Amino acid sequence: MSQSQFESLSNQSLAVCGVFYFIALVAHLAEWAARRSVPPLETVSASPLASGAAAAAGGAGTETLAPTKVDEEPTERVARFARVGMVSTIVAVGVHLLSVVTRGLAADPVRVPWGNMYEFTLTGTLVVVIGYLALYRRYQLSWLSPVVAAFAVITLMADALLLYAPVVTLADALESPWLVIHVIAAIIATGAFTIGSMASALYLIKERWLEKHSTAETPAEFRGYLARVPGLQQLDRLAYQTHAFAFPIWTFAALIAGPIWARQAWGRYWGWDPKEVWAFITWVVYAAYLHARATAGWKGRSAAIIALVGLATLLFNFVGINFFFGSGSQHSYAQ
Amino acid sequence: MARAEKGEEFVNERDRAPEVAPLAPVAFARWTWRQLTSMKTALILLLLLALGAVPGSVVPQDGVDSVAAARWRLDNPSLTPVYEKLGLFSVYSSAWFSAIYILLMISLVGCILPRTRVYFRAMRARPPRTPANLARLPEYRSFRTDEEPDAVLARAQKVLSAYRTDRHGSSVAAERGYLREAGNLLFHLSILIVLVGFAAGSLIGFKGGVLVVAGGQFANVASQYDELTPGALFDAEELAPFSFKVTDFKVDFSTEAKEFGMASDFSAGLDYQTSVDAPVEHARIRVNHPLDIDGSQVYLIGHGYAPKVTVRDGNDNVAFSGPVIFLPRDISFLSSGVIKVPEASPKQLGFSGEFFPTYDVTTAGEPVTVFPDAGNPLLSLFVYAGDLGLDSGVPQSVYTLDEQKLEQVQKDGKNLRLDLRPGEVADLPDGLGSISFDGVERYVKLQVASNPGEWWALVGMILALLGLLGSLFIRPRRVWVAVRREDGRTLVEIAGLDRSSAGTLSEKIDDLLAQLEERT
Questions:
Q1: How many CB atoms lie within 10 A of CB A319?
Q2: Do B502 and A237 count as a contact with CB atoms less than 8 A apart?
């Protein structure tokens, strides 16, 4: 196959995997909507107010009330939707991977597909989804499925619409083995931080929800999505473990591999370039997160907020620096 | 700043300092120290450090991009004095930024020292005695067996080989993960090493930039640099006595539609000597492949055109001959520069203009360069005559003309513009002389740098990473196995306690249970 064929194959696979992610999203939303008719507690008893329509998202009041169904049916439906969602996600990941690989093959000479923002986002999203699949069993992440599917759909859509750039040869400064080392580490860390912050965000939402519903007594009120998101402690633990995994990788990417490469390419290992400044800020904020989790008065809520601030600095570094300080940053070719 | 863990004995002592400051001087000093080294303060200082680093990415920094900083000052005259006062043009060496990280370092040292002492005691400690009531621990299992109690305990000690174990009568106490705290300490200590390396580099290192025309020479002495940024304690005498000649320069400009005009694969050949009487060696440098000479690195960081011209004055003497560096304005390599001819008489001559690598004219009549390679070079110059002002004592840039005492040469009532192709000669009006465009040379922009602290910083950072991994992934855990005879059988009780929050205690205890039960 020629380079241009690989390029269009990459673009087409992106479109196809986007469709599968979308199917996964719809299936997971249906799964969660169907779950509303199953009480979250193990005791599945007859529920007179079972919701029938499955397509609507789980918000209270949005579902249409349908005639009472038999007990087993909703449970079975939940399982079926969940299966559809999972299978679509797995198919999507395969096609997504194809899109990333062919993107690399489309360049002449063949290279790793991490030369600009489009390619970085493409791979970063893949890392998030793979991370989710890898952790699925261990942490029973079915509650994270709609979030991840929505994330993949939205990010890939934004990537294709706003960041798309045709395949070009790498700029000279990028011709280095450190491109592979530095960028893959940054991508993996970014993906893991993203999953971590999903848990942190849900932590904050669930905490508020619990506060609001601490007095509610009717079990019907406990049927929504948030009732099935794991408890605060488990959310906090998932957030911590993903962050603890990502932090050393980020340390390596930003403070070891980056400086080594910068010394080779630009003649100084640290030069307070805007991208470097923000990578440092991100590092400091996540260091603060790890500390906060162990400090009285900062545990839980404050730590979760710091984690989200960390992700914000990470995203700003990735998007903001390139768009606002493009000409002023030596990393500007990463657009 | 050490990370306090769940469980009583891991709570940082200093977090228990009284909230209200006592008035007695000694008690007050003690209180201040405790506040400064508390986790909360460290946390706030960390967040302040992150916040404090932000302005340096928004306001152009003198140390990073001095040209942008100077331009910013010109564009914002009213804000400039305020920004100067706040140190916003050099955030990372400003008093307030230094204050944050110095406080953070003090807080760090104040945390490491006492913890090191505690750690050395804890490292030699034995696992704690078996609690009386194991059932009250977070994980607890029990089973009955016909095995002898001693045999069970002996087996437990063997199974728990990754643990430090003690036999206490009818029970075994085991503990592991002693290195977690060591990792934690190593991480924080290494941050100090990194800082020392970083500081050393900026004190005794140097960085210099120089433009050398292909074929030109360079000797590593301060006067040969176009710009030299020495560290505060750097002595120019210490510059390594190397010299080199730029033998050639190669560059490829892409002609493919998608990346049209993109420069790639540029490289320069260097013949270098480490000292005057050392043998000449040859090397090629390119982006990402610097040359290391005697602890200094020579980097190729840019390139451009240097048109070769010969200027004859009114007396037909050669007043100037050689390549003149023109600076590229953008990636099209449309370049601008000036030629100063102080030797010319009767009047000194100056030329200012543009160099078009591949000259063409747009349909609107605008001169442009359509490709960055020297395909159809053209030198377009305005001519000035008079006094260049070089003797006035005021230093001037080689890239601009001081037009105060110069008069622009006119022809037919218009400013004279000379458009020269290689090999062409143009006579100047009024008997001022002539100028010929002899050919196109290329020059390279080289950076020479030496940073003696960089190895410290790198080693420190790698140690920090190792320490970090240890402090995050070594899981301290305590396990107890107790046996007791009951109704002629042996009751085995197993219990465990995770001392990090992210453990998988339950599974581990299940494993242990399975291994001990196996033979029954």
A1: 15
A2: yes
Secondary structure E strands in B101-242: 139-145, 164-168, 171-176, 206-213, 217-219, 227-230
Task: Look at the alpha carbons of B97, B100, B106, B108 in this order and tell me if their dihedral is positive or negative.
Answer: negative
Q: Which residues contact B467 (CB under 8 A, 6 or more apart)?
A: B182, B183, B184, B185, B186, B187, B188, B189, B190
A312 lies within 8 A of chain B by CB: no
CA distance B458 to A251: 12
C-beta separation of A30 from A86 below 8 A: no
- Which of A242, A269, A282, A335 has the highest number of chain B CBs within 10 A, making it the mutation to test binding with B? A269
How far apart are the C-alpha atoms of B78 and B80, rounded to whole Å?
A: 6
A299 interfaces chain B, CB cutoff of 8 Å:
no
ipTM field: 0.83
Enter the tokens of residue A202. Answer: 């849900």
pTM score over 0.80: yes
What is the H or E stretch that residue A256 is in?
A: none
Q: Per-residue confidence of chain B (520 residues) as pLDDT tens digits?
A: 344 333 333 444 445 555 667 778 888 888 888 888 888 888 899 999 999 999 988 888 887 777 778 888 888 889 999 999 999 998 888 899 989 989 999 998 888 888 888 888 888 888 888 888 888 888 899 888 888 888 889 989 988 988 999 988 889 999 988 888 889 899 999 999 998 898 888 888 888 889 999 999 999 998 888 888 888 888 888 888 999 999 999 888 877 766 777 777 789 999 999 988 889 999 999 888 899 998 889 998 888 999 999 999 888 889 999 999 998 887 788 999 999 999 888 889 999 999 999 998 888 888 888 888 888 999 999 999 988 888 877 777 788 888 888 889 888 888 899 999 999 999 998 888 999 999 999 999 998 988 888 899 999 999 999 999 998 888 888 999 999 888 888 899 999 988 776 567 888 888 888 888 875 4
Interface check A177 vs B, CB under 8 A: no
Whether B289 sits inside 8 A of A252 (CB atoms) is no
Residue B338: Cβ-neighbour burial (10 angstroms; 0-12, 13-18, 19+):
buried
Nearest to B501 among A237, A274, A297 (CB): A237
**B10: distance to nearest CA of chain A, Å?**
10
Name the E strands within B314-362: 318-323, 327-328, 335-341, 348-356, 359-361
The residue written with tokens 């070719």 in the block is: A333
Q: Do B465 and B107 form a contact (C-beta atoms < 8 A)?
A: no
- SS3 category, B177: coil
Residue B44 CA, chain-centre distance (Å), reads: 25
Which chain A residues are within 8 Å of B11, Cβ to Cβ?
Answer: 296
Query: Is B277 exposed, middle or buried, given 0-12, 13-18 or 19+ CB atoms closer than 10 A?
Result: exposed
Beta carbons of A328 and B454 less than 8 Å apart: no
Burial class (CB in 10 A: 0-12, 13-18, 19+), A286: buried
Instruction: Please work out, in degrees rounded to the nearest 5, the angle formed at the alpha carbon of residue B114 by the alpha carbons of B111 and B120.
Output: 125
User: Which residues does chain B have within 8 Å of residue A313's beta carbon, measured at their own beta carbons?
Assistant: 50
Report whether B47 contacts A288 (CB < 8 A): yes
What is the amino acid identity at position B245? K
Cα–Cα distance measured from residue B177 to residue B10, given in angstroms and rounded to the nearest whole number:
14
Do residues B188 and B1 touch, judged by C-beta distance below 8 A? yes
Count, in order, helices (H) and strands (E) of chain A.
Answer: 11, 0
Integer angstrom CA distances of residue A294 from B98, B131, B150, B415: 27, 26, 41, 74
**Rounded CA separation B147/B155 (Å):** 11
Cross-chain CB nearest to B465 (options A166, A251, A306): A251
